[in-house]
Amino acid sequence: RTFIGGPLTLIWRKNYEKDDKWFRAKTVLKVQQPFQVLIEGVCGASYEGDIGVDDISFTPGCQLQMTATLPPFVYSTTQSPYCNATHSHCLQNIRQCIPKDQFCNFNIECVDQTDELSCPPTCAFEQKRLCFWTNDLKQKLIWDFGNGTTSSISTGQST
Question: Which residue spans adopt a coiled-coil conformation according to this UniProt entry (predicted)?
């Protein structure tokens, strides 16, 4: 992506392999501005659901800037011809209108999830917000909130 909180572009994907071997992947990133590469691994359903990532490299012409930051993603506030004055449209689907107060409310209302993309960073687990953690609805592991005592130090609550 080229903006903090901006839309992601899938460059490469490998899934549903059952061989215990490495796969080589090579891709070309045609980006002329600073960008961020995200690598995501999703656990499989059994003990065979493993992933390994090794030897990531960039060509010498690509200058790594480990301390640089991307510009923030700015959501357009231009009124959509499809929405009334109290609603705004989703970024990738301008025909989907949601109330303006439902943008940046930590709930996804837009099908494309863009109502939560350009929100200012906030984090308060005490207010039962996930902050930058997300639940992948396709997986069985779901982040949840809890509080209480534990039987030993440095452990979490029993579920």
Answer: none
